[in-house]
Amino acid sequence: MAAVTHTNEPGANRAPWLTLKYREMLEAWLFISPTFIGFLVFFLGPLVAIFYYSMTEWNLLSQQAAFVGLHNFNDALLVNPDFWHVVRNSVIFAVGLVPFNMALALTLALALSRPFFGVVFFRTVFFAPVVTSAIAWAIVWKFLLQGEGGVINQMLALVGIDGPNWLRDPNWAMAAVIVTRVIKMVGLNMILYIAALQAIPRDYEEAARLEGASRWQIFRMIIWPLLAPTTLIIMVLTTIGSFKVFDHIYQMTGGGPENGTLVLAFYIYQQGFKFFNVGYASALAIIMFVIVMALTLVQVMLRRKEME
Amino acid sequence: MNVVKTRVAVSAMVFCLMSAPTLAEDLRVTVWTGNDAHLKMLNGIAESFKENHPDVIVKFETVPVSDYTQKLTFQVAGGNPPDIAWMMEDAAPAFENAGLLMDIGPTVKAAQGYDFDDFSQPAMALWQKGETVYGIPFSTSPFMIYYNKDMFDKAGLEDPLALAAKGEWTLDKFQETAKKLAEANPGKWGFEFKDGEGYASRMTHALLPSIRAYGGDIWTNGQCGFDKPEAIAAVKQLHDMVFKDKSIVPPGEQGDYFSGNSAMTDNQISRASKMPEAGFNWGIAPLPTGPGGESPVIGQAGLVVFEQGKHKELAAQFVAHMTDKENVATMAQFFPPARKSVLDSEAFINGNKLVPAEQMKNVSSAITKGRVHPAHEKAPQILAAMAPRVDALWKPDANVEDALKGVCAAIQPLL
After folding, report:
1. B201, closest residue in chain A (CA to CA)
2. Residues on chain B bordering chain A, Cβ-to-Cβ distance under 8 angstroms
3. What is the ipTM of this complex?
4. What's the pLDDT at B194?
5. What is the CATH number of the domain that holds B108?
6. Which PROSITE patterns does the annotation name (chain A) (predicted)?
7. Does residue B232 belong to any structural domain of this protein?
């Protein structure tokens, strides 16, 4: 009788090795497998492959690849003068964009973190460009920034300023690209700052005010230190984003004028996708990875020191 | 039990039928055009191929022109090339040298009634090495001046076609006319370089017609020609038109001819398909002549078959079909032929639905006399090396001669 009861138990016919522990593990793997396989095939695989490609001279058209060791790295770092010009442009872009973006994001967040009539409208206005297509955004700005027919210059002309041909003037093209990029992306950082500001207990501010602290003192001594973790995250993400900028450059200047906006990500695209030098482009991508990683680590260390 | 057996048997049969190789074969042809009129015509040719190959389905895939060569390369590198590709002249040498293209000579020459010798020799130059045929030119399209007749009438000017008929359509007249057109149409321009890309992807196309009309070239036999006196004189004139006369759409401005914002542009006959939607009266005329006389420029595209393709022989047969006399005559309304018999025919001159016979005669003449835009296997690198030097050229205070010498210094090692 007892034996009959036993055979009717659920799972009585399963393989002996399929214990509850293994079954749970198997189920877990099955659940994560769609994402995990995608991660392996589309992320980890190419990431590993790029290290191998960087050590080959591989022309996509002729489909011939030869192992050349560190030749591509040597070429980029020590031989090719274009590389350092491109790195310089990327640094100028980042140095121009990151502080500008963060300062504007914080200013907007301070203005829009408290509830007032119409606050949602203003937040939406500043956030809308973030979700706008980057290419559409760049095309519109290309029209606005035309030399003579552009709206910006027509507005400047009303106040007697003769505006330059923004995207064709080597002195102005980089600035124009940075400003349009900041306007596009500032909304994201603004939202992060607003969230952080709203998480600061109002009691701190009220206590400081009762003690006679000025608005600037409250910001400097209370709000700013409490925003430090958010500032660090924003700084790291914006720096990484600025080194990866591609779509704006592709659409607005194509790296010109006179290679003045030829930044690292666009240069990698040019080498890999225009000249089909996949090996060299892979080496450049690894160098970019190292640069961004180093900058991120430096930022993290500096902020930690400051916070201590 | 019998029911179960029957179900299993039926399921197995259905599965076998589904998984059996289909008898029909697909041929993939990549093209840059997405224009409805072009595709309708091409699909008509694919349908007629079925008369002798009823099981073959030919599919035309549109790849936008700006990324065309790049996407084609990635299809090849990914092991999934099309069977046939429409290849532009600047990309052809690189694909040819990489050994990617099939010798289609034996197949096309053996096709019934093909008459291979009917193709003009200059037109075949890019596609043939000795007896090996890498492609068949299927569009040998000269650059023509498109003009907005309404803007000419508003300015009270004779149009380029009338001036050409009198032998007065010279570069100086072109400069004078463009200036008057810009003055008579405030906020608009006298001339726009091809597709509005004269300062970017079409930087050589912008300069070549004038340089050739002055008797020079951008490069020949591995020698840069931008720094030669003819080229310098030609580019100086264009530079004056951009910055002194303000008659050519300058860098950084939008002045689309097809939207009525420029009175003239230079482009190929395939763009005539855009004109019915333009909303103004228009015409086409030859390129202006210069001190070097007439020197038409031709842009060319050919049909090639990939060595890696799954249906190479069949693909070559379709190329033979697509470029036989009848189909070349059909396509001639948009893609001017390289076949002498079609070029000389009354049907080519009189049969174009969009361009009148008087203007088609100029197209025919330009094909006969014209020379193809120089090609090079390192064309992308050459363009990238040129770009910053050409940017320096297109500034109001640029020293044209120095800038052009800079262009040569940058590209000579690549040539």
Report:
1. A254
2. 70, 73-74, 76-77, 94-95, 97-100, 187, 199-200, 250-254, 380-381, 384, 387-388, 391-392, 394-395
3. 0.77
4. 92
5. 3.40.190.10
6. ABC_TM1
7. yes
